[in-house]
Amino acid sequence: MNQATPHSLETTAQAGFPHAETRTKLIWSVSTQSFAAFSAADLARRFAHFGLDAAKVTYTLENAPLLKKFRYALAAEMEANGSRSAAEGWCPFLVSPLGRLAHLFLANGTREVSAGENVNIEIMVDAAAVAGQIPKLEGDTLSIRVTSPDMISGLKEGSRIVISYQQTEFVVESVSRKSNDVLAVKAKVVESALLLSGMDVHSSDIPRDLFPLTHADAQAFERRFDDLADYVVVSGIRTADELTRVRRMILGDAAASGTSKRHPTVGIKDAIRERSSSVPPRILLKVDSRASLELLDTVFDDVDGLILSRSELGLSMPAHELPIIQKKLIARCNHLAKLVIVASELMYSMRVNPNPTRAEVSDMANAAADGADALFLAEEVTEGPHAELVADVSKETLINSEHLHDSNWHRVPFEIANDDDAVASGALEIAEHAKVKAIVCLTEGGYTAMRLSSLRTPVDIIAVTYNHNVMRQLSLLRSVKVLTLERAPAFDQVLQETKKLLERYCGFARGDRFVFVSLTASPIAARNSNIFTLQEID
């Protein structure tokens, strides 16, 4: 296996890593196992030390208190750090229901299997184990735990069980039912492999559909994730009607009114200008199968963005098509000002090795170059023995590759479809020619920041909002930094208040220039008007 040779930790620290900020954001997976290893306060300190941007968490009624403690601990950590204008606006949570999942568990944590070897597998319903509570096992029997009884009803002789996105496969030779929730399976190993506890399991005969909802997922939607979600990650959707049902469960009456193509989930009402007013979570659709890919044309207007899971998509699509699919989906999201996240076993070899492969480094750099807003690091690496190195090397990879993007920057082809697009494009052109330090935008619900971010600007975008919940959501966007105004001043005072924030939190000094953009406010009207202007710190 070809290994990349990253800089040493000492060199990285001298270069400003891992605390240097990247334009492409890093999402860290935090599971119940993370809380078993660390307290919420310790986990928050690690998170801040690694310089991470967002957390992907799974909601269950049982782990909701842990997630709340983690959020409060993150706020306290950033308040103590003093580097942000609003600690509560720093770290967005991408929350998913538990869903129908299947994980592999081993008595000793690891096991090597050889091609042609016969293995015994116990498959049982155990949602707690899949959610992160590792079961105690004995002997050589492999254990696959699933979250719902209907997941094991279709297994039969000849079924193929894929371990960790084609790490290896098992071919089922016989199935016997020990109880309603337990199967005893004899199978043959297809390829030699090192198996690790916690590996994901897939099979065309183990359904992963969201509907009908499991009891745990019904609880999650009923409680609306206890207001912990800035983004809700939805997978296992097969029809547009199913997405409509999800929207109604998450948004209530707002699913049918108060939203638009600009803001599929966040309606723009006067309350959004209140600093602590609640904001609905934005909805991200996970593209993880041929069915979900084919569904996009009918549901694209109803979601705020996509998570592209190439590894899962590769189970139902030819591998050689995946790079082109990635480029097309990212370009489409950029064109429509939608958030786009790439998840694909990034730095996956670092679950056991201290260094990534050259292919993994290239994969991460290419995803950023294609225009992804964020990259998702799965729990196999975020909870592995080399977690700090994963964060360190990922940040270094992005910063070094982004430097090359800057030196070869070219404008993304952009079709101006309306007045707002024209203003955003004009602001970008002024920023390029005037060599400004940043593009600063005033935004209520976030569309202005999303539109500018999608253009892959050569300078940072600083989004100024009134609401710290919107601020937290926008901090996930590519190249975007976020600030909140302490109040909603008259428009003629907004610029002066913004300049104070830029000096205090963003290192602006006298003479620094920036382009100021607003698609929703001007001296003429509170909404339905726009403005951009070249400004300088007095």
Please provide a written account of the structure.
- This protein has 538 residues and is an alpha/beta fold.
- Helices cover 33% and strands 22% of the residues.
- The chain is built from 17 helices and 22 strands.
- Strands 1-2-3-13-14-15-16-17 form an 8-stranded parallel beta barrel, surrounded by 5 helices.
- Helix 8 links the parallel strand 14 and strand 15.
- Helix 11 crosses helix 13.
- The radius of gyration is 24 Å and the shape is elongated.
- The chain starts with 8 loop residues before the first helix and ends with a strand.
- 46% of the residues are buried.
Q: How do the strands and helices of this protein lay out in sequence?
A:
Elements (H helix, E strand, L loop, with lengths): L8 H6 L10 E6 L1 H6 L2 H11 L3 E6 L4 H18 L11 E5 L4 E4 L4 E4 L4 E8 L1 H4 L11 E5 L13 E4 L4 E12 L2 E8 L3 E4 L4 E2 L12 H8 L8 E4 L5 H12 L30 E6 L2 H10 L5 E5 H4 L8 H14 L3 E5 L14 H13 L3 E4 L1 H4 L4 H21 L11 H16 L3 E5 L4 H8 L5 E6 L2 H7 L5 E5 L6 H15 L7 E6 L12 E6 L2
First and last CA, distance: 56 Å
Computed structural class: alpha/beta
Extract low-pLDDT stretches: 5-18, 84-88
Query: Looking across the biggest beta sheet, what order are the strands in?
Result: 1-2-3-13-14-15-16-17
Number of helices: 17
Q: How many β strands by DSSP?
A: 22
Helix content: 25-40%
Q: Let me know the average pLDDT.
A: 87
- Gross geometry: elongated
Biggest beta sheet summary: 8 strands, parallel, barrel
Approximate strand percentage: 15-25%
Rg: 24 Å
